[in-house]
């Protein structure tokens, strides 16, 4: 459906531009925006490589493992069934820890593994369990201790202080996580 909407917008924009005599302006805008997009992506790739390296150092130094140990007791309270299974809880912990540290590439395989493990524990295979729904919410609203993607974008756009976003990101993602967890726990009672 979204493909039809985009096609309609582009088609209507082209038709209107031809009737109003602005076709040349649109062509030059497309070329200029493509040029600036390529420049942004190239600068973003370099900065992302730097942050991925920093996060790998954090991972190799054991910082992510220490964070995982701190999270385990809290997660045992939140997850009813998954907390009884060490494989499922381990994958959940590693996914959330990797996301907190900005290691989204490393978090994805752990997230898939966590869902597979929770599906193994799920008695009703036709629908997601409460633990699976809670994990999706926690994964989507994960607390970002180092928002490396946003810092990279800000640096690529020549921000004078790209790292100033760290404290607001921690506050906003922590708030989103708490609200999401509370909503899940309340809705679990009714659905």
UniProtKB/TrEMBL annotation:
Keyword Signal: no
InterPro entries in the cross-refs: Gate_dom (IPR011642)
Gene: spmA
Keywords of this entry: Membrane, Transmembrane, Transmembrane helix
Membrane-spanning parts: 39-58, 132-153, 165-188
Keyword Transmembrane annotated: yes
Domain Nucleoside transporter/FeoB GTPase Gate, residue spans: 42-154
Protein name: Spore maturation protein A
Lineage of origin: Bacteria, Bacillati, Bacillota, Clostridia, Eubacteriales
